[in-house]
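Notes to self, PepSY domain-containing protein:
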Amino acid sequence: MTTAKRHISRLLATALSALLIAAPARAIVSTGTPTALHSDTDGDADADRRAISREIERFRSSSISISQAMSIAEARHAGATTADVSFDGADGVPVYRVKTLHNDRIWRHTINATTGELVGGEAAFPLAELDHEDRDNLAALGAIRHRLAEAVRVAERAASGKAISGGLVRERGRLNFSIVVVSGDDLKEVTLEPPGAK
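result:
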């Protein structure tokens, strides 16, 4: 997930501390429409809401969870770790788009959200092709002991729902996990600051 100006005002709903001993240090749950799920409807708020509702409905009808999709992608390369994952139900078959980090390469996987099968193979590109900030973020991912899968579990518990996307973001100079959770009919963005992240 890339950093972008937020289209919503952040409302602090809950601050949780020490959900688990191994959990990230702080979880902040914000309500509204996270930037990652804004559609390409040229700012039409009603069209945005309809597009997001369709996406959520397709997500709910999928039998593969985001955690399962990450596990499937990580299993393709022993020792791989997920850097970014998102659900895409816009066209055709709903899928998860998963980016994993392994051996100084970013691997892109598309996982069928119904069957768990890999769609269309996988693509890899070297870290050297990324910009400086993305390389720094991925280096930090390798240095912290927490993984995106753990952040997803904490976020789902904190927001009482199921994660639809997640990844690393840098906000105000700090590296965080940002997880978008479907909770009832709402989307909640959970920001988790891993201990030791810089």
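- Confidence is low (pLDDT under 50) at residues 1-25, 35-39.
- Strands lie at 14-17, 26-31, 81-88, 95-102, 105-112, 118-126, 162-171, 174-183, 186-193.
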